[in-house]
Amino acid sequence: MLILGKELIGNPIVSLENGRILGHVKDVYVDKPLQMIEGLYLGSDGIFSREAHFISRDEIDKIGEDTVLVSSSDCVQKGEESPLWLRREDLKGREVDTPGGTRIGDVDDIIIDESGTVVGVALGRVYVKGPVARNRAIKRTAVLDTGEGDGAMTIELAQAENQEMGVIESSLFSSREVTAPTGEDKSPYTTPAPEDSGVEHDAPEEPYKSPYVSGEPEERSASDDGFKSPHATPDRTESREHDEYKSPYATPESSTE
Predict the structure, then answer these.
(1) CB 36 within 8 A of CB 57
(2) Alpha-carbon distance 230 to 117, whole Å?
(3) Into how many domains does the chain fold?
(4) Considering only 49-63, 170-184, 208-222, which range has the smallest mean pLDDT?
(5) What domain range is 52 assigned to?
(6) Do 25 and 8 contact (CB within 8 A), yes or no?
(7) What is the tens place of the pLDDT at every residue in 185-242?
(8) b/e per residue, 182-204, with b = 16+ CB within 10 A?
C-alpha cells in the first residue's frame, strides 16, 4: 500500500504499550536524501524557544492510513530537531527539472509505503506532457539530485517516463478519468442541442414515450369537444330576449296585469 505524506496529517499516534493516544501527526520528517521517514512532528510549545515535539523512526512500529502505532508511551521527545531531517512541508514546492534545465514541475508531497520508505514524490504543477503528466508522480529511483544544495530536484526524465507509479482509479494520487458517453448510451430525456450553440450531441433515435401513456394525444381544443363550463355565462346576444341562459337562482319574471 502506498500513501501520501499528507494522508498522515491529523492521524492519532497510539502507544502499543497501553493504548494511549500520545498526540496527532502535524508533519513528517524525512532524511535529506529522501530515502526514509525519520520521524513524526507533533507540534511545538513555548513562546521563545519553541521546542519541537517529535517521535523518531526507531520508535515507530507501523504507519497506517488512519493510525500510527508506536512502541511505548514515553517515546515523545522534546528539543532541537536533527539537522539531518527535513520536514515534508519544507519540501513542498521544490522545483523539479532535468540536467539540461527543462522544468518538469513542483513537488507536492512524498509517497511512502507502510515501512516508511520514500518510494517517490507526487507533483503539484506539471509543465510537460506525457507519462509524467499522467502519473503526476515520479519514482525515487529516477531522482538524480534531491535539490538540497540548489533548491531544485533533478530527475532523469527518460527513466521517469518509463516508470509507472501504479496510478489507477483507487490510487491516492490519481484522478478518475471522465469519458464521454458513447452513441449506445443515450438518455431518453436528452434533447438535441440548439443550432449554432457550439454543442454537438445526438438526439435520441426515438422520442421518449412514457410507459403510462397510450396512444398519441390529439391536438384538440375545448370547443372541439363541446366543453361547457357550468360556471360560464352564455355568449352575449343582441337582446336579452334571445338569451336562453336561465340562472337557477333567478326568480320568475313578474307579469304585468
Answers:
(1) yes
(2) 86
(3) 2
(4) 170-184
(5) 2-88
(6) yes
(7) 444 334 454 555 454 544 444 554 545 445 554 555 555 555 555 555 555 545 555 5
(8) eeeeeeeeeeeeeeeeeeeeeee
- 149-158 pLDDT, tens digit each: 889 999 999 9
Same domain, 28 and 71: yes
What is the C-alpha to C-alpha distance for residues 121 and 106, in angstroms, rounded to an integer? 10
- Contact between 91 and 106 (Cβ < 8 Å): no
- In this structure, the answer to whether residues 9 and 28 fall within a common structural domain is yes
Answer yes or no: do 107 and 72 share one domain: no
Among the candidates 52, 67, 88, a domain finishes at: 88
* Residues above pLDDT 90, as percent of the chain: 39
Residues 6+ apart with CB under 8 A from 21: 12, 13, 14, 15
Check residue 81 and give its pLDDT.
84
Residue with cell 512532528: 41
Rounded CA gap, 42 and 13, in Å? 9
Altogether, the residues listed in the chain come to a count of 257
Domain containing residue 82: CATH number = 2.30.30.240
- pLDDT exceeds 90 at position 104: yes
Question: When comparing pLDDT for 224 and 106, which is higher?
Answer: 106
Q: What is the mean pLDDT of residues 163-176?
A: 45
Q: Which residues contact 181 (CB under 8 A, 6 or more apart)?
A: none
CB 4 within 8 A of CB 173: yes
Q: Categorise residue 5: left if φ over 0, alpha if ψ from -120 to 50, beta otherwise.
A: alpha
Q: Let me know: does 1 contact 112? Beta carbons within 8 Å.
A: no
